[in-house]
Structure formats: C-alpha cells, structure tokens
Design goal:
By secondary structure, this protein is mostly beta strands. Helix content is 15%, strand content 37%. The protein is built from 2 helices and 32 strands. Helix 1 packs antiparallel against helix 2. The radius of gyration is 37 Å and the shape is rod-shaped.
Length: 437
C-alpha cells in the first residue's frame, strides 16, 4: 500500500508541476501585454490516515488563480484615451459586437485600455472592448445612477459631439469712470463699452453698456446712469440702472449704491449687493454681469478724469471643432474643442468587488464577476477604495521575468524529482516481482 501511494504521490507531483509550468509559460508569454495579471499556482498537501507503523503518501493538489490585485507599472503614452488606474478599481467595458445588437450587453472589467473611436464614434480597444460610462446632461452634470448595477452604463460615443458651442451666461467687466464728468456744466457725454458674447446657437452678439453722467445744477453728483442694449434683442434698452459712487475720504471712488432706474424694471432685471452682480434677461435667457459690491474696490470705480475700461471677461465659446477627448482624475470624460471650450460627455465609474482575485479571467485581459468575487459597486474614480483615472497612460504586465525564470528552474527540478519517484517505485515493484519468481 505504501509503495502504491508513493507512486500516486509522484503522479500528483507531476500533475501539479505541469500546472505550475503552464502558469509560468502564460506569464512569460504575456510579459509585454498591457493590463495582464499574472497567473499563480498554490500547492496544498493531501493527508491520508496512517497507522500501525506504516505511512500512506497522500500527494499534492494545486489551485490556480489570477493575482488581479497586483498593480503593474504605469507607462506614459501619447494617446489621451489610453486609460489606467492609479490604485484599486476596474474600468467597465463590454464587447463591441454586442453594442446595438438589442441583446443585453455583457459587463466585463479591465484595469487599463487603449481606447480609440471607431467609425460609429464608440471608444473601443483594438481587441473589441467598448468603454462604458454614464452620459452627462447638457449642463455637464451626471444624474444619480444605480451603483450596484450596470443597467445605467452606456457605450461611450463621441461622434455626436464633433461641433459644439457654449452660450455666455456670465460677464465681468471693470472700468474707471471720470469723476470730473459728473460736475455741473459738463456736457453729459455718454461713455459706451461694447462686449462680445456668444448666443445659444454659438453666434457672436454684442452687449453694450453705456454710462451717462448725471449732471447737477451745482456741485458734483458722482452719479451715473447705466443703460444696457443687446444686439440680439428686439427691444432695447434691456435694462437701466442708477449707480452712485462714494466721495468720502475713506471710500472715495468705490460704488456707493446701485438701483433700478426711475422707470423701474423692464425685463425683471436686478442687482445683488452681496455678490456685486447685475442680472438681466435677454431674449436668449438670463445673464449675470459682475460690476462690484458697494464699498469695495475692484470692478467699477470713479476716480480722476480718465475713462478706462479694463478686466473684461466672459464665459462661453463660439462654435468649435472637436480637438481631442480627455479623461480627468475623477473619471469625467471631456470633449475639448479648438476654441478652448470643453464639455463633459460621460462619467466613467470604477468597479470594485470584495475579492478581486475571485474574478474570472477572460480573453483580452478582461474579467467577469463570479460568486467568489462578490457583488460589484460602482464608485466615482478617486473616491472610496478606488484610485484615480489617468489618461495618457497604460498599466504594464505584472509579470516579473526574473521571478518567473527562477520558478521555471524550480518547477523543472521538482518535475524531474517526481518522475524519479515514479521510476524508483517501478524498480522496487520490479524487484518484488523478481522475488516471487
């Protein structure tokens, strides 16, 4: 019985070392494969009951798994949509063959990928994996989605965003108004400032702010009328305000008060003293104009005798062509246009499971959920246990060539030793046969 068990132990030794050799071969073959996670072998002994002065060899078994938790070195690339993860987490992908087929899209997970738009605008890898994400709303926000399900994920498409514009919603301008212009006897000459802005359809429009000094009978008023006219509005002026400036020693030149003209609001315009913003309603929608807060230097001032517009800024952008697609650390995928404007298109979440090593390995460095991996949760990149997403980078293979070659030598020796056990048992059995003869 002991001799037979020795033979069986030797056979199991051959089998487990053959399995280990297979994992080593796979690891070495994929040492240059981006996103490859090494396969590992774990040997476990088999113990059989022994007694009466005899020992029964049980042998050995092997279990293999992917070390998905292992992190490869990040390698810089020249492609903005080469995506990797600085830490824990997996990118959600699906087979591009199943996109638009009407069937359920199988969810797969990868740790890195080189994504390029195909003829349909879907970001995909050369191996046929399409990147998944939550589409952003028109204003760039992402609506709340289920975090424990992939039902809200969609293939990332970029073709519908080749052209884009952004309407102007906020303007900030400053100017120094000549104090001497508000003195009695002055001609009350209006001082205009023309500001370009962009309409809802990307058209270039002009908002003109005209400052007219209020001339008193005697002395100096330090007051101005601000009239706003819009090239895109059918009725002008769109708003009129009265602005008074401080002439005291401590606050001279700063805004003292801003109020509506005596005629009242034309289109529901208003002034917020806490923010220093005028709100006006144009045909294309509301617009905020920052002129400054009462008692604070900054935007509008009244000093000396020089009219000097300055610091005129605005948001928005004219129609631009898509230049590139980029992803930030939070997983927000943005389209960047040649006008400098950017728009949020998708949010790519990161999937995490309790046991990453329990994921089932698929082709193309992809993984699928299993009972062993546990349930999935979709995190915003950089939150919870997940790392941040990084563009222009790919994760290299986790294979350690030196370690694998060392393991290869060890496995060869172990396989030869187990073969020697079988040979020795065979010789001993042959001797037993010869005795019986």
């Amino acid at each position: 019985m002991s001799i037979s068990s020795s033979m069986n132990a030797g056979v199991t030794g051959l089998n487990v070392n053959a399995s280990r050799l297979a994992t080593i071969s796979d690891n070495i073959a994929n040492s240059s494969t981006f996103g490859y996670k090494t396969a590992e072998s774990d040997f476990s002994s088999i113990a059989l009951d022994s007694g009466g002065g005899t020992y029964t060899a049980g042998g050995v078994t092997v279990s293999t798994f992917r070390n998905v938790e292992g992190q490869g070195t990040l390698v810089t690339t020249g492609n903005a949509t080469d995506i990797s993860i600085a830490g824990r987490g997996m990118l959600p992908v699906t087979s591009v063959v199943d996109v638009g087929s009407g069937d359920d899209q199988p969810l797969m997970l990868v740790s890195t990928g080189s994504f390029e738009p195909d003829k349909n605008g879907i970001l995909r890898t050369q191996s046929g994996l399409a990147l998944l994400g939550w589409p952003a709303n028109v204003d760039g926000t992402v609506s709340p989605r289920a975090r424990d399900s992939a039902s809200g994920l969609e293939p990332v498409r970029v073709t519908s965003n080749q052209l884009a514009a952004e309407a102007t919603e906020n303007i900030s301008f400053g100017a120094n108004l000549p104090a001497s212009a508000t003195a009695a006897g002055e001609p009350a000459s209006p001082l205009p400032i023309s500001i370009e802005y962009f309409g809802n359809l990307g058209t270039s429009e002009t908002l003109t702010a005209t400052f007219t000094p209020q001339i008193p009978a005697t002395g100096q008023s330090n007051s101005w009328q601000l009239q706003l006219t819009d090239s895109a509005s059918a009725a002008n002026p769109v708003a009129t305000f009265e602005i008074a400036f401080d002439a005291s020693r401590t606050g001279g030149g700063a805004i003292s008060s801003v109020s509506l003209a005596s005629t009242g609001a034309v289109n529901g315009e208003s002034y917020d003293a806490d923010t220093g913003e005028l709100t006006i309603n144009l045909d294309g929608g509301p617009m905020s104009i920052l002129i400054g807060r009462p008692g604070h230097d900054g935007q509008l001032s009244q000093l000396s005798s020089e009219f000097a517009p300055h610091a005129i800024t605005k948001d928005g952008a004219p129609v631009g062509n898509l230049s590139t697609i980029e992803i930030d650390e939070g997983g927000i995928l943005r389209a960047v246009y040649d006008t400098g404007f950017s728009r949020s298109l998708y949010q790519v979440p990161l999937a995490d499971v309790p046991n990453l090593n329990g994921l089932r390995a698929l082709d193309n460095q992809a993984f699928a959920l299993t009972d062993k991996s546990g349930s999935m949760y979709l995190w915003d990149a950089g939150s919870g246990p997940t790392g941040s997403t990084i563009g222009f980078a790919r994760e290299s293979s986790t294979t350690d060539i030196a370690g694998e070659l060392t393991a290869l030598i060890e496995t060869q020796r172990a396989y030869s030793s187990n073969a020697k056990i079988i040979q020795t048992v065979d010789e001993m059995l042959q001797e037993t046969t010869n005795i019986k003869r």
